């Protein structure tokens, strides 16, 4: 899967310059123009290290499986496309993510980018792709911080514009709010909610007074206590805990880094604060983080984007969600995690796009093929058809399904996710009911 590089001028600039001067046909010659085989070089930026590394622990397994699945190439008309994947570590740092994305585009001369794992990773990568006119598919970030967070003025909806080369699939905050409140309504609470919103893209989106949680919760009769933005990786949450105690908070929510939630939860217990429900995004998505918390993790709740109970199969390999999870556990000795399905789906989209293009050198054609995607993937339908998305984001966003669950200790002593609310998508089976934290 070796790619012959274009001249050092740079692939995108070379193609544009050659086309403008007529040098493309003369310089490359007929044999190259009519070549029947071409390697598509995929760039992948992910947080292999740092506080977001748990998101990326599935990456090696998925990429290896993808390359095996497409080992014979993908046919598009008379052409056969092979694949190469170049992975770079963002180190969980947005600046580093932009830097390595630029390296992939300029130095590695990739044809298409994929990105995942929170807005801190997706946003700088997709922004760089938009600037450099590189087609990109991304996931694993709610669509609001992804789309609104990349605007020149996020506070002015009238100025928001769509993107030409970057396309995203995931759920939105409206879906998460529906799932969380569905779970909370199963419990007898005073409807007083405490918020943990950090000063980052996710936290600012979740806490946005116009498009985030505050107006949606208020509309349903919940009282929200928001102590304000805190800095990630802080070591003292006493101010937040005291504010929650003063407001008689019985429900805690937020979007928190795993080490920060571990610190908060330990200090909350030490200071005598035990809510009836704690529905947390990001921090408790992973079994490693939850099992590290210990017994007090029982009945912590979160959104579930994907699981071994989801009734979907891969459009690339035909493998079911259940079999993918068991295969990952057998191969790695680790419990499956939710990014497993979504990272696989990224490469499902790329493989499907390759079947529908004539030239990977034409960024506009590749971007148009991404926009025309319509597949049944291992995470469910993926099609940028505008369904259930506001008009301003319909070009670039397609939404995926969401349900809610709790962590319960299994007979082997390990915590595993149990789906406890599937009102948003009943075809995904529930395995229990919402229970209070004790």
Question: Any overview of this molecule?
Answer:
The protein has 438 residues and is α/β, with parallel strands linked by helices. 36% of the residues lie in helices and 19% in strands. The strands form four sheets. A seven-stranded mixed beta sheet has the order 2-3-1-4-5-6-14, with helices on both faces. Helix 11 links the parallel strand 9 and strand 10. Helix 4 runs parallel beside helix 5. The longest helix has 16 residues. The relative contact order is 0.13.
Keyphrases for this structure?
15 helices; four-stranded parallel beta sheet; globular; 36% helix; disordered N terminus; 438 residues
Question: Briefly, what is this?
Answer:
The chain is α/β, with parallel strands linked by helices.
């Amino acid at each position: 899967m070796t790619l012959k590089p274009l001249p050092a001028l740079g692939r995108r600039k070379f193609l544009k310059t050659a086309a403008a001067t007529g040098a493309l046909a003369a310089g490359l010659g007929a044999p190259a123009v009519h070549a029947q085989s071409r390697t598509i070089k995929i760039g992948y930026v992910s947080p292999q290290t740092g506080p977001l590394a748990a998101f990326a622990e599935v990456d090696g397994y998925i990429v290896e499986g993808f390359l095996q699945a497409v080992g014979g190439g993908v046919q598009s008309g008379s052409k056969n496309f092979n694949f190469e994947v170049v992975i770079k570590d963002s180190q969980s740092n947005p600046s580093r993510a932009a830097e390595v994305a630029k390296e992939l585009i300029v130095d590695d001369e990739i044809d298409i980018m994929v990105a995942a794992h929170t807005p801190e990773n997706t946003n700088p990568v997709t922004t760089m792709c938009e600037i450099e006119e590189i087609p990109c598919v991304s996931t694993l970030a709610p669509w609001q911080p992804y789309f609104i967070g990349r605007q020149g003025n996020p506070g002015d909806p009238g100025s928001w514009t769509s993107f030409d080369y970057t396309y995203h699939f995931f759920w939105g905050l409206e879906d998460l709010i529906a799932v969380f409140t569905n779970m909370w309504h199963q419990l007898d609470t005073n409807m007083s909610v405490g918020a943990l919103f950090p000063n980052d893209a996710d936290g600012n989106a979740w806490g946005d007074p116009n498009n985030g949680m505050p107006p949606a919760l208020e509309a349903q009769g919940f009282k929200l206590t928001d102590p304000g933005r805190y800095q990630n990786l802080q070591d003292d949450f006493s101010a937040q805990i005291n504010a929650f105690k003063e407001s008689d908070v019985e429900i805690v929510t937020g979007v928190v880094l795993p080490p920060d939630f571990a610190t908060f939860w330990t200090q909350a217990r030490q200071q005598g604060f035990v809510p009836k429900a704690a529905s947390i995004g990001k921090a408790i998505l992973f079994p490693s983080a939850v099992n590290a918390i210990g017994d007090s993790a029982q009945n912590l709740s979160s959104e579930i984007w994907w699981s071994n109970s989801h009734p979907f199969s891969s459009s690339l390999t035909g493998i079911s969600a259940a079999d993918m999870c068991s295969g990952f556990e057998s191969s790695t000795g680790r419990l499956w995690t939710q990014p497993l399905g979504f990272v696989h789906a990224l490469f499902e989209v790329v493989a499907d796009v390759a079947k529908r293009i004539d030239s990977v050198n034409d960024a506009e054609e590749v971007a148009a093929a991404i926009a025309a995607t319509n597949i049944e993937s291992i995470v469910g339908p993926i099609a940028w058809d505008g369904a259930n998305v506001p008009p301003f984001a319909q070009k670039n966003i397609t939404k995926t399904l969401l349900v809610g669950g709790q962590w319960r200790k299994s007979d082997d002593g390990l915590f595993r996710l149990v789906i406890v609310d599937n009102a948003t998508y009943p075809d995904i089976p529930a395995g229990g009911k919402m229970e209070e934290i004790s």
